[in-house]
Amino acid sequence: MHKKFIGSLHDDRAKPLWEIEKESVGLAMHVCFAYCERDQRCVGIEICTIRPDLARCRGCCEWYVVDKDGGLPRTAIGGCKYFELSKNSVESRGTRLSTNSNLSAVASSTYIEHGILEVEYPASNVLDGIYGNDCKRVNVYSSVIEKNPWLEVAWSGTITIWRIIIYNRYECCGSRLVNLNVTYKNNGVTGICGFYPGLLSRDGDILLFYCPPEAHATSVKLQIHSKPGQINELNLCEVEIYKKS
Q: Is the distance from CB of 179 to CB of 197 less than 8 angstroms?
């Protein structure tokens, strides 16, 4: 591991996997580094000095957000440092599903823009490989404004999901991605990868979800849980599914 930044994980942009307290920073680092290496979801460790006789470490993350410029979710809190696993170590844990896996996407609805030309924003847009600055309005999936909009990605066969990467809309409207529940399904049984409140959702955000070890699945569903009396619109550029190596 190497030190990535001084500060702590931003609680609105990351959800730690676990938290451990020890009597010293050295002991906390020793215990948590070993714990992180055994946990396939763990990509880094936050170490904080709470007081002279107490240190806390947190493993990152059930989910976290990377902004469009590649910035990690951090806050400038004194007494904390964040250590990150090497990219090669993390990426060796899983592989991305390719088009050979017969990926497909369906959704609760599809927004169609009516004008001189009729423009549709279908679910298949999340599988076209276009994201980031290249994801223009025409490349976006968009639902209609409705209660609890959802999108589901399926593939052939059963895999053990390692990671799901969701690319938020880039050119506008990033704040629409709120209260997002990410689940997986296998033989009619549904499990949870994570829930993203989206309190600080921004244009171009990249959301990374690390699923639990028992996430054996044939599909993944992304659904906004609308608050009582509210309706929402689901906008996404791209969704990537990774299976465990």
A: yes
